[in-house]
């Protein structure tokens, strides 16, 4: 391959208009699989969460999971879609060993939800992303290629298949093509996936964790010169983080622009995004030639959701995240930037619940975006799973406000809470971390410090008040940080007649 | 004691309940009969003697403990090898499943076990139930007890022959285009296809999901009805199973046995009665039976079903389309045969070699037909069009059932034919199901009951009823049986 110098993004986008489209797969958090009673929880020894149905054994038959259908309808409603009054599942036929039946039960020309939209904010402007369809299907198993250097099938000596994931309900959300985003296309793509994740998380139907694959994203990109027809699109797979969504679009725009500028043609193909290099590589080109031979799934009866039930589900939808954020931002008095950092940290709900438990918004934000965000980051986990509850954070702040803990002690207490030692009060008491406010005990410590540092004491007596810091430090040391520094300082100055 | 193998299921159940014979004695009598004649008939692919004796002893123990027994407790039964039986080989007549022991029971088999019937073994069939003669079984054909040089029908020729040869009083079949009724007709036995959704497909290795229907095979209409009631009923594991009570088929059979059909309107399908493609001897026996039914008080009404003539072509698009997808799972990855896995060949090559070696010619033909019919650009012209024909056929049935209670026809256009006479031209084989296929496309029930002989071979009389009115066809079938009697094949001994 010849090495060509790629243009910068700004150069690349200057002569073209991009059109993007996104296909998102969301694993639903139902208790059981889509068409059988096997459990769905992540992890587990390979091939232990399987039965004749999800293994596709001869004679087995699927039975649709009502909870999954309900969750899909709720997603459709939250994305302003129309819900079909009658629709069917369809078989998508292709041979692949991670698919037990060699067909996937999906939906084809009769999706459960159609024609909606999702509004997202980009650069202070609202962009409306059209939703083409939301449909329900079953996930495949996972293939593991062993023995090769790359973990890919090439060079592997053995391929192993784990069917634990096979049959987990999967919702596919497909946008309409999004033209007109211009140079902001990568940001629009990212904003859409971010907002979609918030919507679905708000519905409580999936944990939408990109790193665990419960939210997966394919990005379509094409370029055309202004005034011309839309170009040929490519589909980029393996886009597994919000940052990657943005990078994938950016890199595909740069690549396609270089091809077009040099007089080449874009091939309609599937490409794979690499987290390491940040660019896309061609996938198997024969995928585009696959004829899936879709036909209505004869093993399942048509779905006909009762309109009254759909209305009930609609009425019970939670407040849309975007409206909620606006309301909250106003109530908390946050700047746009501060609010953005709260959203990006996934802390909206946590702070809201902490405020509801009695803390001020500022205090709640300080804990969740500070100490707790740092811990979550270090552990590589979500903020919500960091180990502290909003109620505990509110309790901690009450202890600080009441003078029982200082900031430093509060952090130590929080460490105990996160470690599962109990409520902040319980940790404080068990570890003996309360601020020492008993002046009798403090006076003794102060006298001890003065006696041990006669030179320093003399300086203070001579009016060099700043020197008192060394004595404060000594007292804090003997009290193991449990004294209130301000009180200690006042006591020292009083004792030395320098107050 | 009279020969236990010559008794009907109803008689055997009574004998066991009274204690005149134990279930174990009944079972051993049938196992002995299998040993004696199955070398000639080849109805069974697998005989589970140990399992059968165990099941029989459980019934005997239950009776000894004074517990109540079901209507078929202790009665032996043969099961078509297309229904899964836990731990017992299940091949669907194919090399690709040779040696596979399913880890689960099909719902029908589970209900048979719960009812205390004694499963003797698994019967031969055309591979994946595709065929009308058992000549497409990967394990060799079954021979018709009436003439060992002739076919026993198919796909369920093994089940019908086992019943006809007194190897079992009852058997389970599955009917996709006639695979219970046509073998019943050519072996002189009773075969019923229940309403689609009336019997569970869970554990039935699918040929064509929207058509496959398990049903009973027996030597008398009452026995078929007794088995129908045991095996039928709603099953949550099959989404297409109908959540309604089983039609009162046993009661209807008993009523029909009285021989009174006063006020019952039989619809004679004029398009079928033209006799096109049917042997004169078959039509003659059919008309004799009609005359007998008239004597019992039935009224014959001519009805038109203009779209029945398109049933066969529509069927040969829908069934192969569904089978091309249903049979995709046989790839050598998870169960059954695997060919060519030498550590060097690619997965695709191993899948291809496995399917190449594991499937027979007729199965491959239908997979290819169906793959073509579903492919992009052809779907509307083939599969889509066939579904429209299916709707028109359903409308024909609905219109007919506004005028009459049941429809009647010969079951199959010709009597049992000699081996090899229809294998060179697939269409000649497909014609065997000319009269049975419309019922499958409509989804209603149909039954074949013996009505006489033509050239010394049995002729079947078909009765078709509206969906979930299975009881109607049992009543008429039992009345016809009371008028013309049952058929006894020549002795297989000596």
TrEMBL record, chain A:
EC class: ligase
Recorded coiled-coil stretches: none
EC numbers, comma separated: 6.3.5.-
Annotated ranges, domain Asn/Gln amidotransferase: 349-496
A GO term for molecular function: asparaginyl-tRNA synthase (glutamine-hydrolyzing) activity
Parts of the chain that traverse the membrane: none
BP GO terms, sorted: glutaminyl-tRNAGln biosynthesis via transamidation; translation
The family this protein is said to belong to: Belongs to the GatB/GatE family. GatB subfamily.
Record NCBIfam families: gatB, PRK05477.1-2, PRK05477.1-3, PRK05477.1-4
Protein name from the UniProt record: Aspartyl/glutamyl-tRNA(Asn/Gln) amidotransferase subunit B
Designated gene of the protein: gatB
Automatic annotation (TrEMBL), chain B:
GO BP, one annotated term: translation
SUPFAM superfamilies per record: Amidase signature (AS) enzymes
Protein name according to UniProt: Glutamyl-tRNA(Gln) amidotransferase subunit A
InterPro entries cross-referenced by the UniProt entry: Amidase (IPR000120), Amidase_CS (IPR020556), Amidase_dom (IPR023631), AS_sf (IPR036928), GatA (IPR004412)
Broad EC category: ligase
A GO CC term attached to the entry: glutamyl-tRNA(Gln) amidotransferase complex
Alphabetical keyword list: ATP-binding, Ligase, Nucleotide-binding, Protein biosynthesis, Transferase
Active site residues according to the UniProt entry: 80, 155, 179
Role noted for this protein: Allows the formation of correctly charged Gln-tRNA(Gln) through the transamidation of misacylated Glu-tRNA(Gln) in organisms which lack glutaminyl-tRNA synthetase. The reaction takes place in the presence of glutamine and ATP through an activated gamma-phospho-Glu-tRNA(Gln).
HAMAP family, sorted: GatA
Source domain of life: Bacteria
Annotated Amidase domain residues: 25-472
Complex and partners: Heterotrimer of A, B and C subunits.
Species of provenance: Asanoa hainanensis
């Amino acid at each position: 391959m010849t090495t060509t110098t790629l243009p910068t993004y700004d150069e690349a986008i200057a002569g073209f208009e991009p059109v993007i489209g996104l296909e998102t797969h969301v694993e639903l958090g139902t208790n059981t699989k889509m068409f059988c009673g096997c459990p769905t929880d992540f992890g587990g020894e390979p091939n232990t969460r399987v039965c004749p149905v999800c293994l596709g054994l001869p004679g087995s038959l699927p039975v649709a999971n009502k909870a999954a259908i309900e969750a899909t309808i709720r997603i459709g409603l939250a994305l302003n879609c129309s819900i079909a009054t009658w629709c069917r599942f369809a078989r998508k036929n292709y041979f692949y060993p991670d698919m037990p039946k060699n067909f996937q039960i999906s939906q084809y020309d009769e999706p459960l939800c159609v024609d909606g939209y999702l509004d997202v904010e980009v650069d202070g402007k609202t962009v409306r992303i059209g939703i083409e369809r939301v449909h329900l299907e079953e996930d495949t198993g996972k293939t593991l290629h062993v023995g090769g250097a790359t973990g890919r099938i090439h060079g592997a000596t053995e391929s192993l298949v784990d069917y634990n994931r096979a049959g987990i309900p999967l919702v596919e959300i497909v946008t309409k093509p999004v033209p007109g985003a211009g140079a902001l296309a990568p940001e629009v793509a990212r904003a859409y996936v971010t907002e979609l994740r918030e919507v679905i998380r708000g519905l409580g139907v999936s944990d939408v964790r990109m790193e665990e694959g419960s939210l997966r994203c394919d990005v379509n990109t094409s370029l055309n010169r202004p005034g011309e027809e839309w170009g040929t699109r490519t589909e980029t797979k393996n886009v597994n983080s919000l940052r990657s969504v943005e990078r994938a679009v950016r890199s595909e725009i740069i690549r396609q622009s270089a091809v077009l500028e040099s007089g080449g043609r874009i091939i309609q193909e599937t490409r794979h995004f690499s987290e390491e290099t940040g660019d896309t590589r061609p996938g198997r080109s024969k995928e585009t030639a696959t004829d899936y031979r879709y036909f209505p799934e004869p093993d399942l009866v048509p779905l006909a959701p009762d309109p009254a039930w759909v209305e009930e589900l609609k009425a019970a939808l939670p407040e849309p995240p975007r409206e909620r954020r606006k309301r909250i931002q106003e109530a908390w008095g946050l700047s746009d930037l501060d609010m953005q950092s709260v959203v990006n940290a996934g802390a909206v709900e946590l702070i809201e619940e902490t405020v509801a438990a009695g803390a001020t918004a500022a205090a709640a934000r300080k804990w969740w975006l500070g100490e707790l965000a740092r811990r979550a980051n270090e552990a590589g986990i979500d903020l919500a799973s960091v180990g502290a509850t909003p109620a505990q954070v509110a309790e901690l702040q009450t202890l600080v406000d009441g003078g029982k803990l200082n900031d430093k002690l509060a952090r130590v207490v929080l460490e105990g809470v996160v470690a599962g030692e109990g409520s902040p009060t319980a940790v404080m008491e068990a570890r003996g971390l309360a601020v020492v406010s008993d002046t009798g005990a403090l006076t003794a410590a102060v006298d001890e410090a003065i006696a041990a540092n006669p030179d320093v004491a003399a300086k203070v007596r001579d009016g060099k008040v700043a020197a008192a810091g060394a004595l404060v430090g000594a007292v804090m040391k003997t009290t193991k940080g449990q004294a209130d520094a301000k009180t200690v300082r006042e006591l020292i100055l009083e004792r030395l007649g320098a107050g | 004691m009279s020969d236990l193998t010559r008794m009907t299921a109803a008689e055997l159940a009574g004998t066991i309940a009274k204690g005149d014979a134990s279930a174990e004695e009944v079972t051993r009598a049938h196992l002995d009969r299998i040993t004696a004649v199955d070398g000639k008939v080849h109805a069974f692919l697998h005989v589970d003697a140990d399992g059968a004796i165990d099941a029989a002893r459980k019934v005997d123990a239950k009776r000894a403990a004074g517990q109540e027994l079901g209507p078929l407790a202790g009665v032996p039964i043969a099961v078509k090898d297309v229904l899964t039986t836990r731990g017992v080989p299940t091949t669907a007549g194919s090399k690709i499943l040779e040696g596979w022991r399913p880890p689960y029971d099909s719902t029908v088999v589970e209900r048979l076990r719960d009812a205390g019937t004694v499963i003797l073994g698994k019967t031969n069939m055309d591979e994946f139930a595709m065929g009308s003669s058992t000549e497409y079984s990967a394990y060799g054909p079954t021979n018709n007890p009436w003439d060992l040089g002739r076919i026993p029908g198919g796909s369920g020729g093994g089940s019908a022959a086992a019943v006809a040869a007194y190897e079992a009083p009852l058997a389970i079949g599955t009917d996709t285009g006639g695979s219970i009724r046509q073998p019943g007709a050519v072996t002189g036995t009773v075969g019923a296809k229940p309403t689609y959704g009336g019997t569970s497909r869970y554990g039935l290795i699918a040929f064509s999901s929207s058509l496959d229907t398990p049903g009973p095979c027996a030597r008398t209409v009452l026995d078929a009805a007794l088995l129908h009631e045991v095996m039928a009923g709603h099953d949550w594991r099959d989404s297409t199973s109908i959540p309604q009570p089983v039609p009162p088929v046993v009661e209807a059979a008993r009523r029909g046995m009285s021989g009174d059909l006063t006020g019952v309107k039989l619809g004679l399908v004029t398009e079928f009665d033209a006799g096109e493609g049917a042997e004169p001897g078959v039509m003659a026996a059919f008309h004799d039976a009609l005359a007998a039914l008239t004597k019992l008080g039935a009224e014959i009404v001519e009805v038109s079903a203009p779209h029945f003539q398109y049933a066969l072509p529509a069927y040969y698009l829908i069934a192969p389309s569904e089978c091309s997808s249903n049979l995709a799972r046989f790839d050598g990855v998870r169960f059954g045969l695997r060919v060519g896995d030498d550590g060097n060949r690619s997965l695709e090559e191993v899948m291809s070699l496995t399917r190449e070696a594991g499937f027979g010619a007729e199965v491959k033909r239908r997979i290819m037909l169906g793959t073509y019919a579903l492919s992009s650009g052809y779907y509307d012209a083939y599969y889509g069009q066939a579904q429209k024909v299916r709707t028109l056929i359903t409308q024909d049935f609905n219109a007919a059932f506004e005028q009459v209670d049941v429809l009647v026809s010969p079951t199959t256009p010709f009597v049992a034919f000699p081996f090899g006479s229809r294998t060179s031209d697939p269409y000649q084989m497909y014609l065997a199901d000319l009269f049975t296929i419309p019922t499958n496309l409509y989804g209603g029930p149909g039954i074949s009951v013996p009505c006489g002989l033509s050239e010394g071979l049995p002729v079947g009389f078909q009765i078709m009823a509206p969906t979930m009115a299975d009881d109607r066809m049992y009543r008429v079938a039992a009345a016809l049986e009371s008028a013309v009697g049952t058929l006894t094949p020549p002795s297989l001994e000596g």
